[in-house]
Structure prediction request, 175 residues.
Amino acid sequence: MSVKKDPDQTDTDSNLTRHLLESLERAGKRRTAQRSAICEILASHAGHPTASDVYNEVRRTFPMISQATVYNTIDTLRELGLIARLDIANHDHTHYEIDTRPHVNVVCRYCENIADVQTDSVDVLFRHAAENSGFAIDRDGGVIVYGVCPDCVQRLADAPTDAERPRTLHGAEAG
Prediction:
């Protein structure tokens, strides 16, 4: 499923697509129509697509594209630091996002919706974790926090009995 950004983002998306393609070329990858389509999808996607999402979307234009082309292009973009990998607990697939700045990803435990929250506190958290653990902190994907999105809170609150409500709603903090 494709989720598109606001139409006013077209210029920004085009610039981002161009940046991704130029970065691939500097890394020695040829600019192909397929790679261009992959970069365009990533740049214009408002959410956190999986490689499968990107593959399914690019197949609309290039039905003969291989999964390997999509996965290899995504891997190269990630290795270049141009997209971030988001491994979410209990998901059997990896999500990717174009926003590589440190931020918080809030994941709904029920519908798997992912919301980005920009905050300078993530840098402080990473620095504190590194200083106190001795670890080299992997900043890929930022910080992942789990909860229940507003739509699911409402849907679950409307459940007729407590037994049908998940225990995470009882006493859970809502924003």
Summary: DSSP finds six helices and five strands in the chain. Strands lie at 84-86, 95-97, 104-108, 114-117, 143-147.
